[in-house]
Amino acid sequence: DSLYQRLGGDAGVAAITADLLAASTRDPATRGSFVKVDLRRLQRMLAEHLCHLSGGPCQYTGDTMKQVHGGLGISEAAFYAMVENLRNVLDAHQVAQADKNALLAILAPMKRDIVEYKR
Ligand code: HEM
């Protein structure tokens, strides 16, 4: 029994990813970053990434977090806004508190590779 399974497996991770992307393209704190992005591809890569990180049977085929986000000028505030949106999405999918914390704990250290500005 892995975190991936507790997130709902393939279908759960796909739905969580779709909802997070929907929130990210709506939230004024983050939406500007996604204007020119191929969201279908991003959905696929992000789902792969989350599947891999949570112990699912997936290979992540994208680039490193530093390669992907470098130069995008992402602020710490935007990062925290996305974390907050993910927290809400996981709540909406009734992911247990411990599993939510486990996933967020895996993602938190990536901040240093993603954020370029304090605000
Ligand atoms: C822990 C937090 C985050 C994780 C795990 C994450 C993960 C990813 C992944 C896996 C990709 C796809 C990589 C690829 O295509 O090779 C991606 C792309 C992207 N991310 Fe993030 N991300 C995070 C935070 C953010 C934040 C806070 C923003 C902006 C507010 C952001 C903006 C983007 C954009 C714009 C792309 C698409 C880049 C492109 O295709 O040119 N990400 N992210």
From TrEMBL:
SUPFAM superfamilies for the chain: Globin-like
As recorded in UniProt, coiled-coil segments are none
Q: Which Pfam families match?
A: Bac_globin (PF01152)
Q: Which UniProt keywords apply?
A: Heme, Iron, Metal-binding, Signal, Transport
The answer to whether UniProt assigns keyword Glycoprotein to this entry is: no
Binding positions (heme): H69
What GO molecular function annotations does the UniProt record carry, in alphabetical order? heme binding; metal ion binding; oxygen binding
Q: In its keyword annotation, does this UniProt entry include Plastid?
A: no
Question: Matching InterPro entries, A to Z?
Answer: Globin-like_sf (IPR009050), Globin/Proto (IPR012292), Hemoglobin_trunc (IPR001486)
What's this protein's name? Group 1 truncated hemoglobin
Identify the species of origin: Chitinimonas arctica
